[in-house]
Design goal:
The chain is an all-alpha fold and 527 residues long. Helix content is 76%, strand content 2%. It has 22 helices and 2 strands. The protein has helices spanning 5-8, 11-25, 30-58, 80-105, 114-133, 137-155, 161-192, 197-203, 209-227, 236-239, 245-270, 277-296, 301-322, 325-356, 367-370, 372-386, 392-407, 410-439, 450-464, 477-495, 497-512, 515-522, and strands spanning 61-64, 75-78. Helix 4 (80-105) runs parallel beside helix 14 (325-356), helix 13 (301-322) runs antiparallel to helix 14 (325-356) and helix 14 packs across helix 21 (497-512). The longest helix has 32 residues, at 161-192. It is globular, with a radius of gyration of 23 Å.
């Protein structure tokens, strides 16, 4: 296992890039392209599992790309945190791909052409994996740019005016973030002579305090935009809902968490001695409250869940800002939980749109009667997001609140109150959405859908007569299966909360004492 691990570490980046090239060559053979894409992501998931097992047992694994040894060369580093994020992202990207391919096979509009979607999606997967494994700031920047380019293509599939407009906004904001990040990299290199994160952990603390502060703030601004932290989150609710359902699912589930991951590395590795704890705690509280208040004002389900996405980023930032072992453990656990649950919700919303013809609560109704299976698929992650016990959302929030209480300071206590209010308002928003879209009679909605009203009436008559009823509006089985796998994974986070928490706790311990990380990257002689 130890000998194989260094060989495995680059593969989550390399295989999707190779797959993207093959997919382009096979652009006229849809079936072959699909087989290659799914096969590549299946292989990545198996490899990510082996990497997680290996790093948990043997510590961080370091691979020098091109034979150039660190700190001069590019390195990929797999530790417990990056390996955990890698396996969760591989599960999500695989399920979303299966969902997307099934949707395209049953869609006559050609809004998501496979010939374009598959290679772009695989490049996105490679960029995400590269971001998690990057051992230096410039390679992290490269990972960001890889999934930025791919995400713009995916966001504008179908070339509708609305998607192009949202895509332009997304790209402009992302470019601003990238410029800030790249400028920070340039200044950091000028000040320290390196961009290797392990070496920066030693050299940044030797800079004057004001220089450290400037560099710290620049990195947090760049990463904060990608993570959608208030007040840098205004772009997200307008950008994500316009994309096709699978694209929105993977964006909401993963891309903001890459920003959170980068913030964790910044706070625990590079600037462990230069704390911006108070501003981060304030930003976390405002992100929670502003996000959920925005959700309350919406009537379109995609926008509602997009605003809740923003609000729940605040919980993760809360744990990171606390900086304690329990706080970091809770932040990591909650990040894993949110990736899975948010993806499941957006995939379920895609099924709602296909089944009901809309995602607006002004048009939907009666889905509980019309599609009980879809109701369950939506209801479970919705409850989980709301933090209802015993789901993982409840476990993660309780852990965060306990970490806040252990801090014995007034500001974390305020954050606990803000988190509690946010959780209650999330429950209200989700409950209202469920009531409007699933529970009420479709004839009572503001903008009635004639097909839904007729089908609902026929369904009621059939049930009252005691006859068997078969739905006339089908949802592709593969889409239901892919969504169900993610929903089951969200349940597994609850059933397997103890081992997952153990992994998160060990990852947090590594983050707080990064000696193993630094030693494995640089070696004792280079320190």
């Amino acid at each position: 296992m130890i000998d194989l691990l260094p060989v495995l570490v680059p593969l989550p980046v390399l295989l999707p890039l190779i797959g993207a090239g093959i997919a382009l060559i096979l652009s006229k053979n849809t079936r072959a392209q699909n087989i290659v894409s799914v096969g590549i992501l299946c292989a990545v998931m198996v490899i990510a599992t082996l990497i997680l097992i290996g790093t948990d047992a043997n510590g961080p694994q370091v691979v020098a790309i091109g034979g150039w040894q660190p700190p001069a060369g590019i390195v990929l580093v797999a530790d417990r945190l990056s390996s955990l994020m890698l396996i969760v992202s591989s599960l999500v990207t695989l399920c979303v791909l299966v969902y997307a391919l099934s949707q395209d096979a049953n869609d006559d509009s050609n809004e998501t052409p496979i010939s374009v979607f598959n290679p772009s999606y695989l490049v996105l997967c490679a960029g995400i994996a590269n971001s998690f494994l990057a051992g230096d700031l410039f390679n992290l920047y490269v990972g960001f740019e890889m999934f930025l380019v791919a995400s713009y293509v995916l966001l504008t599939l179908g070339a509708t005016a609305e998607r192009i407009r949202a895509g332009v906004t997304y790209v402009i904001i992302s470019l601003v973030s990238s410029v800030i990040f790249l400028a920070a990299i340039g200044i950091i290199y000028a000040a320290t002579g390196t961009v290797n994160m392990a070496q920066l952990a030693e050299r940044l603390s030797q800079l004057p305090a004001d220089v450290q502060m400037i560099l710290h703030v620049m990195l947090l601004l760049g990463f904060g935009i990608k993570a959608a932290i208030f007040p840098l989150s205004f772009w997200l609710p307008d950008s994500y809902p316009t994309a096709p359902a699978p694209v929105t699912a993977v964006f909401a589930g993963l891309l903001t968490k890459v920003g959170i991951y980068a913030i964790i590395r910044t706070e625990t590795l590079m600037f462990a001695e230069s704390s911006l704890r108070v501003p981060l705690l304030i930003a976390a509280g405002l992100t929670m409250l502003v996000g959920i208040l925005g959700a309350i004002a919406q009537s379109e389900i995609k926008r509602i869940v997009s605003f809740t996405l923003v609000s729940h980023i605040g919980y993760m930032l809360f744990g990171v800002a606390l900086g304690t072992n329990v706080g970091l453990s809770a932040a990591i656990y909650y990040t894993v939980h949110h990736i899975i649950v948010q993806t499941a919700l957006f995939l379920a919303i895609g099924l709602v749109e296909m089944r009901g013809g809309s995602t607006s609560t002004r048009s939907l109704g009666g889905l509980m009667v019309l599609s009980p299976v879809l109701t369950i698929i939506f209801f479970i992650p919705a409850l989980n997001l709301s933090g209802i016990p015993p789901f993982s959302g409840f476990i993660g929030k309780v852990a965060l609140f306990l970490a806040g209480f252990d801090d014995h300071a007034w500001l974390p206590t305020v954050l606990i109150v803000a988190g509690t209010v946010t959780s209650l308002l999330t429950l209200y928003v989700i409950g209202r959405t469920f009531n409007l879209a699933f529970w009420r009679d479709p004839a009572d909605v503001e903008e009635p859908n004639a097909d839904l009203v007729d089908e609902f009436s026929e369904r009621k008559k059939t049930l009252l007569a005691g006859r068997k009823w078969t739905s006339q509006i089908g949802v592709p089985p593969a889409m239901v299966v892919a969504t169900s796998v993610v929903v089951i994974a969200s349940i597994a986070l609850t059933l397997g909360a103890e081992p997952l928490w153990g992994m998160a706790n060990r990852a947090a311990e590594n983050l707080q004492t990064p000696v193993d990380y630094i030693t494995n990257v640089l070696g004792d002689e280079d320190r």
